[in-house]
């Protein structure tokens, strides 16, 4: 004997939401009125359709079609499962009852395929499905009374003689006995399921989430038995784990976003650093300093004609020198830059961070450039004597001045006639042709070279003698006469000497 009712429906509505719960409500209401119902909740395949769906349609008494919004739109596809079910019901003359839940109205598309066009001739019934409220039950009772015959009873008297398993669950669920769906169990309501005495495998499927399902073995006695199903504790555990997982994922997401922001910020800062350094601008521990690009070239080093008759013997002979490109400090190293790198201030004259650092030996200057190189990742050093003089003369932009940037010493230098007996902040006088300040006056500047006599031969990137007792320093100071501020004037101190007239500037090889 076949089923009383075959429930046909679309598993998901037009918005992608599941219709299974809605249709399951119809199933339970029909079963409450003793109808045998075929309810397909499995994923359909050709084999399942042939073995289960078709026989159930051909032998059912009523083909109840649950029409949710847009469910017939896909019937234009010949392989659509819902269309195939309707075609089979029409083919075998089953009594088709369209049911429209939840006030749906657009149920009959104008362009239904010819194979199911006759479907629109059936009168539908609009039923508001609100689970098991009284309105729904009244509408279902009216449907059954007006449109359906009594169910074909299947030995229900014998079933009534079986003991009943009284099932109580704390969540809505579906009960399966040996994989056969047997009852809909509503939360905190008692369901009674007739069962022959014996051993069974029970499964309770939560209507909310499959993760809350419960399986158990049951030995059914020859008398009524109470079985309590605890899905709530599993739900709470699941929800806690899901919450913890969401929180973990949120933390990981925030950490990834933070790491990405930090990466982008590092990249931005690195780009800006490289852009600044390309312009010769550097920063160390919050203190900025600038390096000036000097294009390499060839010049005559020593007592050239503009130096006048104040020259000394060690400035001769004049000789040709060729240099590669390099960067040199826009100013001498200031007290604030020295402190940012070395953490102290050895200077005699203090009070302004832009004053030249002084009282530093050649060895102190070497320690400074080594630490500055580590902090910046660039190779800083002291200038060679040739690099210093080429820079002081203005490099390729030289206008042949006696002092660095002018023939008028008061424009470019602090020396004994205008210094007031002390150093002055850098960049207080006019820059030379390259934009370099204080290369004449303020403080003497250490060079890297040992002091030695000049050679008349042409030289490429000379480094000075290999050995010696004194190191070269250049430029004059606040304490000396104007003649000591000339660009070719040479001076010496031993490497360990410290003086309040002695500082330095740095060079960066390109």
| Tertiary shape | rod-shaped
CATH superfamily of the largest domain, please? paralog of FGE (formylglycine-generating enzyme)
Main structural class: alpha/beta
**CATH third-level topology of the largest domain:** paralog of FGE (formylglycine-generating enzyme)
Can you characterise this structure?
- With 510 residues, this protein is an alpha/beta fold.
- Helix 3 (81-91) links the parallel strand 3 and strand 4 (95-101).
- The mean pLDDT is 90.
- It folds into four domains: 1-154, Toll/interleukin-1 receptor homology (TIR) domain (Rossmann fold, 3-Layer(aba) Sandwich); 155-230, Immunoglobulin-like (Sandwich), CATH 2.60.40; 236-277; 281-509, paralog of FGE (formylglycine-generating enzyme).
- It is rod-shaped.
- The chain is built from ten helices and 24 strands.
- The strands form six sheets. It has a five-stranded parallel sheet with strand order 2-1-3-4-5, with helices on both faces.
- It has helices spanning 20-32, 46-59, 81-91, 134-147, 156-160, 232-278, 335-342, 362-376, 385-393, 409-412, and strands at 5-9, 37-39, 62-66, 95-101, 125-127, 164-169, 173-177, 180-185, 190-194, 198-206, 214-220, 225-229, 281-284, 287-294, 297-301, 319-323, 326-329, 380-381, 444-450, 459-460, 471-474, 491-493, 502-503, 507-509.
- Helices cover 27% and strands 23% of the residues.
